[in-house]
Amino acid sequence: MNELSEAEIEHLIERFPLPDDRADAILGLGDTALALGVSLPTMQRYLKIGLPAIKRGGMGRLWRIRLAAAWAWRQALMAEDAQRKSRRKQARSALACQRR
């Protein structure tokens, strides 16, 4: 995923809202990882591939990440992965049918 505009982030949040038991908040890197149920290395990988951040951290600066945006971005990423896997499975099935 590439860097998203504010409008694209808001669209993702509408499409993939936070669960009812979670309130939106501005969090640091560790708290966002905890809220998403992922490790810090996974969070760092997500940030490298496009997870939106309000304020980028590093070199002594703290990350600031909106939970609703991070949640929606991750849900979209997981949906893309599931769709990609489904297309691969369909392609393999089609190839298997052609070989018979």
Automatic annotation (TrEMBL):
Region called Disordered, residue ranges: 81-100
InterPro entries listed in its UniProt record: DNA-bd_dom_put_sf, WH-like_DNA-bd_sf
Taxonomic superkingdom: Bacteria
Record-given protein name: DNA-binding protein
Lineage: Bacteria, Pseudomonadati, Pseudomonadota, Alphaproteobacteria, Hyphomicrobiales
